[in-house]
């Protein structure tokens, strides 16, 4: 069963997205990994939305902490800060049995930290507001 069906119709396209920073983390990897301890640093975003419409495409998404995220200094973000990025919609095989597939956002670039919508110098997407209004219900 595919969980991220809203991404299915966008498969293969490269688009701008934004999401709310939750936390950093680590995932196990084969071999030693870049940190030498068998793990890879990651970041978790929630309520990932299309930047143009504000439509939520997935409730959460884990990314490897790539050089682009490092350069944007994402590790210093606080929970709730909005991060915008370009990414390609791709599919992947999931599960231990490798018997199903789903969609993901891959190869994030042009990463920008917008901060919190409450800030006076807010420069993020218009569908976020200081009152935390729900996103407009747009169709893909």
Which terms summarize this structure?
140 residues; mainly beta; OB fold (Dihydrolipoamide Acetyltransferase, E2P); five-stranded antiparallel β-sheet; 2 helices
| Main sheet overview | 5 strands, antiparallel
Level-1 CATH class name: Mainly Beta
CATH fold-level label: OB fold (Dihydrolipoamide Acetyltransferase, E2P)
Largest sheet strand order: 3-2-1-4-5
Q: What overall form do the CA principal axes indicate?
A: globular
- Strand tally is 5
Q: How many structural domains are formed by the residues?
A: 1
The stretches of 5 or more residues where confidence is low (pLDDT under 50) are 132-140
Proportion of strand residues: over 45%
Q: Helices and strands, in N-to-C order?
A: HEEEHEE
**Average pLDDT rating:** 81
């Amino acid at each position: 069963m595919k969980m991220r069906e809203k991404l299915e119709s966008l498969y293969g396209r490269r688009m701008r997205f934004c999401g709310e920073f939750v936390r950093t983390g680590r995932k196990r990897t084969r071999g030693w990994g870049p940190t030498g301890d068998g793990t890879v640093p990651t970041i978790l975003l929630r309520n990932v939305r299309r930047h143009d419409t504000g439509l939520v495409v997935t409730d959460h998404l884990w990314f490897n902490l790539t050089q682009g995220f490092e350069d944007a200094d994402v590790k210093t973000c606080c929970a709730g800060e909005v991060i915008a990025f370009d990414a390609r919609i791709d599919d992947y095989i999931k599960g231990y049995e490798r018997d199903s597939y789903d969609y993901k956002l891959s190869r994030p670039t042009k990463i920008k930290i917008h901060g919190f919508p409450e800030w006076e110098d807010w420069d993020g997407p218009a569908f976020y507001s200081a009152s935390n209004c729900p996103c407009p219900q747009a169709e893909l």
